[in-house]
Predict the 3D structure of the following.
Amino acid sequence: MRKQAISQWKVLVAVLSLFLTVLIWQKGLQESFDRPSVSPRISLNQHEIALLAQPALPVNVETVFVGTSPKNTLKELLMEIPINNISDREKLLLALLDDSKDIRPSLVAASIKDNEFQLIREQILESLDENGVASSLSSLASLKRDPLIYALSCGAVGGRSGDCVDNRVSQSMALRLVASQLIPIFATFLGISLCLRQGWLLVRKRNRIWPTITPLPLSIIDMVLLVAGGFVVLGEVITPLVAIPISQVLTNGIASPIKESVNVLIGYSSMTVPPLIIFRQQLKVVSSLQMPLGGWIQWGLKPLNESFLQALHGWLLVLPFVLLISWLMTSLIGDPGGSNPLLELVLGSNNFFALGILFLTTVVLAPLFEEFIFRGALLPVLVQKQGRVLGVLISALVFALAHLSIGELPPLIVLGVGLALLRLSSGRLFPCVVMHSLWNGITFVNLLLLA
């Protein structure tokens, strides 16, 4: 009688948790439409870097990496920014990129509130006299910390190209530009080659047999309580009510962007506590059962070299599919927006310590926790109860929905499928953690290259 009452109580809480999760996710996905996408910012940064890198690139490869006219392309991108959202720097860039002496005065004569750009504005207006040359370039020297503004301002007031371009900056930007373009291209080519090889092995029936996965002796109801109740309802709603005040106290007096980075770390760490507590209680119920070899989660840390190779293999295999689905989305419906706010933090930060905290959160903490929940606990139970195909698809969908980003939903589903297949094919969880870390880490580094 008591067991039946406990069972009914669990079902009731699970149904309530599932209902609340649907409401929370629906609200989160709707709100993601209002969040700006980082794609325009990344594209703008990439074309600024291209303009700076152009002098350092060999003529025979210049078109490949920067296009036929990086100056005009950057100008077109700036003109697409709504007038209410354009910053003083972007307004000034647009003025500097415009070669028409009829248009430029109207651009720089408009109100530029930032005092830092007032000097440039005055110099440009001065250069528009009948001589078209400013009396001196020395007053622009302080602008060298913004190489693009300096180079364009120097050229606008009559400076020679040799005086306006810093060769070291140009070479540095060229390296960043080449790395940000060649690494994804090379990885995609290698990934397609591996996909073709896997397809050939499948046709020839030479794929190795996947190991047996021993799931936790828990039910679908237990998984609903863990994911919906612990991860979503408690982790994403109730915990922040406690974590945010604590974070505000701990970061009081800390300057940006370190403050925002610490807030992200504390917020994400606190979100992991409720599901881990629930999972611990669930394990107590099955403590009398014999634990399988490798434990219930089957981390499989060793051999480490094999884990890293499996992770790299999985990352390369899934990359072409993620890029393909992202390209199809952009081609069919445009940029849906709703990017992860963490991407904006990485792009906007130039503080080493702040970036280190964000790196710890995204490349270490997030993969560990999310793989533990979605591929360690949830996936094996789903595979046992629903079969391999449904188990992989459902776990991938839940993983993608949990990120609350409508724009990233399809690519995350594909990534989730790739991680689930790696979990099943390797028989271990640690390669999934490494693959997830690799995915987040390369995204992180690519953002830094284009920051």
Notes: Residues 127 and 202 are 68 Å apart (CA to CA). Residues 39-175 form one domain. DSSP finds 18 helices and no strands in the chain.
